């Protein structure tokens, strides 16, 4: 049996595979986001008539999921591998299964299943139909045909694939804790790279973040976003909307947003994204 | 001829497959009927990747037909004839001239030739695909450049259409029909060429696809039971889960996995829920009926290693999920051991129940007070303090970590946590059971403490929404109030809780408006009051009299209102009207639910209407006792005849009273007339007294004694005597009879 892929080799294999299928291989967006979908290469590029095929790794931050490095399955900072194909090509499922083969999942021995899961992002005002992909009962990817983003119909529809990289790697390598993952083939583990990060950021997210300033930042970036939309600069405006979304996530993790306020904040971020997208669609149609 | 249609697509959600197969069949049968094409048996079914249909004995062609269309007269202006030719698509010499009484008229005979089955099917297939209605559908691919692009549940990938082995050529959603399909994704990934409808199922089977959902279900159920038995365990059968797994697999292979017995410290419901909902696994039990540390998952292939890797993978996933669940459960245990279930209560203040009805903490407060009152008033035979305590703790688990993660086990978790710290069993059970009954067929609580909390919980919800004018309308019932009302009715009738609904609501309504006491309104006036309130009748007023505040309608006092809140008189009045209207409407609403519930028990809704006019009709137990007595009576011979006599009397009176009866002559008459007068003189007070004493069967017996005299009266006596005085006296006697009957039940409401 061949040695399973290390974390970084798996990323390289996915990039190589999708690059070979005509995707541009992008790098992560350089702002804190909650998921790969927030990257402008997905959110904005999924709107408008242009053809667009891209893949990239996106570090994703979910402040509430931090466990101070003590839970073997949960992280506040993790990686998603994202593929966006517009319009969705014929036999996208076949292409996806090919990528599993490429990272060494033997489908004659493992049970890969497509289980209904319709995706919706209240923050992005977006929804699509698709599946969770299960491998032996574990969700390893999210597979979505985008129907609407920021309230706009996607025309044409993009197919979006999101791989949870740590989970997939744990599966391939057969380890029980994220921190035991082989990061490379030279003895470096995921824990060597990220354990301190998880400890310190959990403390920041739950204890240290200055909520008064975060509220002020939220207001500032919201204002900035609107000002930039008014000047027809949707791309820089979108960065401000992303910041607003992350600030909300931080405030939420600090427990200073009540259940009732929560919806209102999500609505405010959605309105920003909507304003940006309206402006963007106007320019690309 | 035998016809096969297969519509391939990417994975169809399991829950939609059965309905989609039905729809395919119905649309197909309807379309052939419309086209006049005969056929035999039609079967339709689905796998995750295809909908398919096979029709037997399809006729080779449809019957031909001829239709005659009448046109203008032969002498009509050229323009009119031109128009008729255009409409029919014929030429002038193809028209027939016929003699009619109106002269010579032109007729067109339109002949439709029979069409071949292939021709019809080629039209029908694209039509079915275009019209198909999925619960949710989507656009995809290059065509989705247009928002009017074809829609399907997931991308449609292929169409097989074969009539006696020949391709029926057609096109839909950009796909051309053919004979090519796909077998199992792993076992037979290449193209598969189907020969005919007759070979379809076998060819798929050879490609590791079981076309029949029934066969897949049967394999899953049988093999799972065998695996369980092989391990000395019993499968906890679950038909829904069998169907779901059959909808997720084309080649189902059940496998047995195990988990660490240490996880059994987590409540059983949580483990089963995780396995069932999150993972679609079957749970197993051991010989004692206890949950076994094992599960059965259903793979979609014969793995090369016999399923070892798949079993191992599924065990790991479940183990990670159960670790999470155990973490939450232990956290909750630590919380209640340190501070009791009360430790959760402050957090209920942060959860809004409804913007007009406050937080969950507010709701808990209200329910506790009503539960206590229900016991204090004697309606429910439980210790008031216990009921109050149970109500206070009933919602605590909603903010526990476990319920946060697994909302479906609300109540169950509260009970387990209560048991873990030695809360009295009656209270612990009430925490679990206070949501019950959830829908028809669910258990109705019978333990007194549970009854008190369950009833209070539902009445509080209902009254809160009704007093704020948030009633269900038509098919819209976002707060599931019909279900709550049906729950109330079931609890009240099954436990024989004799209570005036109005009194209970008066007790509780002060939470939603000012305190209100309905003092002077007879129950049967309610419908009218509700109607008026709804129409915003200006005659409704709030007045102060002798230092008391009353709600009035014209001269009538309707409700006495406490003067606790006197801030904004205008909004206060509106809220009072809303609340009074809400209370009455809620009683009506509950009586409607009672009718629905009783219909299944064979009680006629018109009997319920007939007795609810009496005072006290808001006590459902009393109401039902009366209905049963009434129904029993009307079904006897005496009852049937009396009902007929009543209807006759009521009809006579109806027309006579229109013009006024006039002054009755003195005396009692003679013969049958005197007999009826005498019988009424006895029966009336007897019936009245019996009704007052709630001896309803006795009241019926008193009415039954009138049957003979009434029959004799109608046989021997002519009501319309020429002497107006005598006529008036006889009419008055009939009116007396009618009113006597009305004192027991409104027979005019009885149908038939």
Order of helices and strands of chain A: HEHEEHEEEEEEHHHHH
Q: Which chain pair shows the most residues in contact?
A: A-B, 43 and 48 residues
Q: DSSP strand (E) fraction of chain A?
A: 15-25%
Average per-residue pLDDT of chain A, rounded, comes to 94
**Cα gyration radius of chain B (Å):** 37 Å
Approximate helicity band of chain A: 40-55%
Question: How would you describe what is shown here?
Answer:
The complex is a heterodimer of chains A (285) and B (752). With 285 residues, chain A is of the alpha+beta class. Chain A has eight helices and nine strands. The model of chain A has no long low-confidence stretch (mean pLDDT 94). With 752 residues, chain B is α+β, with helices and mostly antiparallel strands. In chain B, 49% of the residues lie in helices and 15% in strands. Chain B is built from 26 helices and 22 strands. Chain B has a five-stranded antiparallel beta sheet, with helices on both faces. A four-stranded antiparallel beta sheet of chain B has the order 13-15-16-14, with helices on both faces. Chain B has a four-stranded antiparallel beta sheet with strand order 19-22-21-20. Chain B starts with a strand and ends in a 10-residue tail after the last helix. Classes of the chains: A alpha+beta (285), B alpha+beta (752). At the A-B interface, helix 3, strand 4, strand 6 and strand 7 of A face helix 8 of B.
Throw out a few tags for this protein.
heterodimer, A: alpha+beta, 9-stranded mixed beta sheet, 43% helix, globular, B: 752 residues, alpha+beta, 5-stranded antiparallel beta sheet, 4-stranded antiparallel beta sheet, flat
List the helices and strands and how they pair.
The complex is a heterodimer of chains A (285) and B (752).
Chain A: H1 7-20, E1 24-25, H2 40-43, E2 52-61, E3 77-86, H3 92-102, E4 112-116, E5 119-121, E6 126-135, E7 138-149, E8 152-153, E9 159-164, H4 165-173, H5 190-208, H6 211-230, H7 234-253, H8 259-284
Parallel strand pairs in A: 1-2
Antiparallel strand pairs in A: 2-3, 3-9, 4-6, 5-6, 6-7, 7-8, 7-9
Helix pairs in contact in A: 6-7, 6-8, 7-8
Chain B: E1 3-9, H1 17-35, E2 42-47, E3 50-55, E4 65-73, H2 78-88, E5 96-100, E6 103-112, H3 117-131, E7 156-163, E8 166-167, E9 171-172, E10 175-176, E11 180-182, E12 191-193, H4 197-206, H5 213-230, E13 234-235, H6 239-246, E14 253-258, H7 268-278, E15 282-285, E16 291-299, H8 308-339, H9 345-348, E17 352-354, E18 358-359, H10 360-376, H11 384-394, H12 401-405, H13 412-420, H14 425-433, H15 448-467, H16 481-494, H17 501-509, E19 516-518, H18 526-535, E20 540-545, E21 548-553, E22 556-561, H19 569-600, H20 605-611, H21 620-634, H22 637-658, H23 671-692, H24 696-704, H25 707-716, H26 724-742
Antiparallel strand pairs in B: 1-3, 1-7, 2-3, 4-6, 5-6, 7-8, 9-10, 11-12, 13-15, 14-16, 15-16, 17-18, 19-22, 20-21, 21-22
């Amino acid at each position: 049996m061949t040695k399973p892929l290390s974390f970084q080799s798996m990323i390289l294999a996915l990039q190589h595979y999708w690059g070979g299928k005509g995707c541009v291989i992008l790098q992560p967006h350089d702002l804190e986001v909650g998921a790969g979908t927030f990257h402008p290469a997905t959110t904005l590029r999924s709107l408008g008539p242009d053809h667009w095929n891209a893949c990239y790794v996106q570090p994703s931050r979910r402040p509430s999921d931090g466990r101070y490095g003590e839970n073997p399955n949960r992280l506040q900072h993790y990686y998603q591998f994202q593929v966006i194909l517009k319009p969705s090509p014929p036999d996208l499922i076949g292409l996806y299964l090919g990528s599993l083969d490429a990272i060494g999942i033997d489908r004659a021995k493992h049970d890969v299943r497509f289980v209904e899961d319709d995706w919706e992002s209240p923050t992005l005002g977006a929804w699509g139909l698709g599946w969770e992909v299960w491998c032996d009962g574990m969700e390893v990817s999210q597979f979505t045909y985008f129907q609407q983003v920021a309230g706009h119909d996607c025309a044409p529809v993009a197919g979006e694939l999101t791989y949870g990289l740590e989970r997939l790697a744990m599966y391939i390598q057969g380890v029980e804790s994220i921190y035991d993952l082989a990061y490379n083939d030279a003895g470096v583990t995921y824990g060597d790279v990220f354990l301190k990060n998880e400890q310190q950021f959990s403390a920041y997210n739950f204890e240290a973040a200055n909520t008064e300033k975060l509220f002020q930042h939220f207001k500032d970036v919201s204002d900035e976003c609107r000002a930039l939309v008014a000047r027809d600069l949707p791309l820089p405006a979108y960065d401000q909307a992303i910041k607003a979304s992350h600030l909300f996530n931080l405030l939420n993790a600090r427990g200073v947003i009540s259940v009732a306020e929560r919806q209102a904040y999500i609505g405010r971020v959605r309105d920003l994204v909507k304003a940006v997208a309206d402006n963007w669609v106007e320019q690309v149609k | 001829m035998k016809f096969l249609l297969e519509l391939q697509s990417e994975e169809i959600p399991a829950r939609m497959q059965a309905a989609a197969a039905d729809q395919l069949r119905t649309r197909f049968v309807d379309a052939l009927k419309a086209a006049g094409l005969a056929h035999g048996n039609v079967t339709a079914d689905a796998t995750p990747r295809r909908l398919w249909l096979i029709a037997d004995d399809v006729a080779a062609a449809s019957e031909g037909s001829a239709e005659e269309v009448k046109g203008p007269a032969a002498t009509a202006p050229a323009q009119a004839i031109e128009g008729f030719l255009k409409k029919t698509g014929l030429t002038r010499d193809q028209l027939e001239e016929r003699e009619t009484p109106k002269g010579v008229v032109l007729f067109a005979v339109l002949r439709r030739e029979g069409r071949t089955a292939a021709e019809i099917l080629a039209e029908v297939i694209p039509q079915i695909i275009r019209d198909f209605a999925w619960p949710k559908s989507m656009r995809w691919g290059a065509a989705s450049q247009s928002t009017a692009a074809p829609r399907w549940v997931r991308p449609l990938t292929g169409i097989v259409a074969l009539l006696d082995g020949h391709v029926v050529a057609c096109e839909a959603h950009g796909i051309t029909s053919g004979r090519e399909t796909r077998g199992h994704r792993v076992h037979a990934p290449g193209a598969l060429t189907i020969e005919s409808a007759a070979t379809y199922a076998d060819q798929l089977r050879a490609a590791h696809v079981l076309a029949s959902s029934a066969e897949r279900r049967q394999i899953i159920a049988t093999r799972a039971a065998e695996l369980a038995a092989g391990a000395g365990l019993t499968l906890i059968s679950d038909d829904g889960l069998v169907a779901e797994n059959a909808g997720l697999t084309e080649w189902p292979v059940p496998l047995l996995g195990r988990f660490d017995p240490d996880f059994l410290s987590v409540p059983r419901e949580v483990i089963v829920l995780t396995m069932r909902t999150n993972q679609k696994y079957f749970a197993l039990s051991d010989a004692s009926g206890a949950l076994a540390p094992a599960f059965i998952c259903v793979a979609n292939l014969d793995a090369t290693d016999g399923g070892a890797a798949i079993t191992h993978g599924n065990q790991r996933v479940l183990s990670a999920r159960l670790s999470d669940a155990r973490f939450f459960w232990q956290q909750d245990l630590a919380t209640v051991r340190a501070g009791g279930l009360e430790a959760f209560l402050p957090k209920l203040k942060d959860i809004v129940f409804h913007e007009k009805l406050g937080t969950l903490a507010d709701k808990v407060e209200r329910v506790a007070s009503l539960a206590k009152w229900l016991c204090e008033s004697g309606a429910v035979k439980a210790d008031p303090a216990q009921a109050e305590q149970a109500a206070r703790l009933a919602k605590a688990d909603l903010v526990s970590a476990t319920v946060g993660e697994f909302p479906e086990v609300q109540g169950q978790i509260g009970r387990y946590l209560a048991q873990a710290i030695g809360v009295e069993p009656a209270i612990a059970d009430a925490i679990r059971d206070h949501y019950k009954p959830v829908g028809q067929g669910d258990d109705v609580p019978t333990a007194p403490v549970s009854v008190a909390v369950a009833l209070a919980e539902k009445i509080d919800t209902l009254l809160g929404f009704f007093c704020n004018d948030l009633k269900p309308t038509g098919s819209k019932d976002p707060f599931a109030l019909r279900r709550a009302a049906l729950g109330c009715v079931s609890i009240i009738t099954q436990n024989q809780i004799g209570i005036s609904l109005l009194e209970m609501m008066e007790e509780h309504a002060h939470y939603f408006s000012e305190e209100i006491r309905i003092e002077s309104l007879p129950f049967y006036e309610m419908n009218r009051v509700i109607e008026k309130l709804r129409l915003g009748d200006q005659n409704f007023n709030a007045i102060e009299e002798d230092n008391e505040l009353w709600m009035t309608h014209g001269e009538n006092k309707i409700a006495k209102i406490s003067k606790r809140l006197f801030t904004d008189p205008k909004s206060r009045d509106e809220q009072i009207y809303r609340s009074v209207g809400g209370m009455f409407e809620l009683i009506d609403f509950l009586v409607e639910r009672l009718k629905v519930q009783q219909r299944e028990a064979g009680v006629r809704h018109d009997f319920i209407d007939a007795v609810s006019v009496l005072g006290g009709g808001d006590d459902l137990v009393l109401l039902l006792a009366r209905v049963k007595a009434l129904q029993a009576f009307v079904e006897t011979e005496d009852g049937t005849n009396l009902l007929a006599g009543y209807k006759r009397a009521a009809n006579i009176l109806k027309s006579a009273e229109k013009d006024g009866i006039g002054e009755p002559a003195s005396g009692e008459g003679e013969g049958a007339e005197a007999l009826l007068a005498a019988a009424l003189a006895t029966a009336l007070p007897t019936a009245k007294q019996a009704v007052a004493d709630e001896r309803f069967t006795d009241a019926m017996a008193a009415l039954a004694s009138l049957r003979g005299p009434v029959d004799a009266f109608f046989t021997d006596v002519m009501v319309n005597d020429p002497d107006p005085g005598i006529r008036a006296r006889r009419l008055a006697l009939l009116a007396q009879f009618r009113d006597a009957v009305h004192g027991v039940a409104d027979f005019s409401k009885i149908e038939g």
